[in-house]
Design brief:
The chain has 205 residues and is mostly helical. It has a two-stranded antiparallel ribbon. Helix 6 runs parallel beside helix 8 and helix 9 packs antiparallel against helix 10. The two termini are 27 Å apart. The relative contact order is 0.11.
């Protein structure tokens, strides 16, 4: 039950970009802010990078390209812009991997307090609550993630898993479909969705 969720939410930043040309264009507009210029080359914002990567992810027709785009998205989501938050996230991940859930929550409580607009802080805390089977708090934090980043396929997948565990199959189907609409390459999510839809058809016969 936890396999594909933890594979997504435990991902740690890796070096990788998809098609450098998607992120830089010569001859930037004179209206571009000076801090977004770098030696005459347009420097995209984080949001623009994510938009380009999601487009690549949706259009990818081979597993390698999809994995590369997904990895780059996960890397960008982990970027907090704060050394302190980054350190707390490092500690929280180590605690999660050691099954020290209370310690991980302590670190993540500080993260969401210090930087409430940082989606990955909420996402990691939702993951800890999920691992503790505290589904109510996990769903609440997933709501915060999706308010900040509606395309967060990890949070959508996790929501589907929780709803399935709670016996709310219809809502789980909706969550899984939403995750696949953003990232059609989540094979485990597709398998879970197929199982639910097959069972639904069987019940209607």
């Amino acid at each position: 039950m936890l396999r594909f969720l933890t594979a997504i939410v435990f991902a740690w930043p890796l070096v990788g970009v998809v098609g450098g040309s998607a992120f830089a264009a010569e001859d930037p507009s004179p209206l571009v802010e000076p801090e977004r210029r770098e030696r005459g080359v347009f420097v995209p914002t984080k949001a623009e990078k994510l938009d380009a990567l999601f487009e690549t992810l949706g259009d990818a027709d081979d597993p390698d390209s999809a994995r590369e785009a997904e990895r780059a998205i996960l890397n960008l989501w982990m970027e907090s812009g704060s050394d302190t938050v980054d350190l707390l996230m490092t500690w929280s991940l180590a605690a999660m991997q050691a099954d020290f859930h209370a310690r991980a929550l302590d670190f993540l409580d500080r993260v969401v307090l210090m930087q409430p607009d940082y989606a990955e802080g909420w996402n990691k805390r939702a993951t800890v609550y999920f691992l503790m089977e505290d589904y109510g708090r996990s769903i609440a934090d997933i709501g915060q993630v999706l308010e900040i980043e509606p395309r967060h396929f990890g949070a959508l997948s996790g929501l589907g898993m929780i709803l399935r565990a709670l016996g709310e199959e219809e809502r789980a189907i909706t969550a899984f479909r939403s995750a696949l609409a953003v990232n059609p390459h989540l094979e485990d999510v597709r398998d879970a969705l197929d199982e639910l839809e097959t069972a639904k058809v069987g019940q209607s016969l």
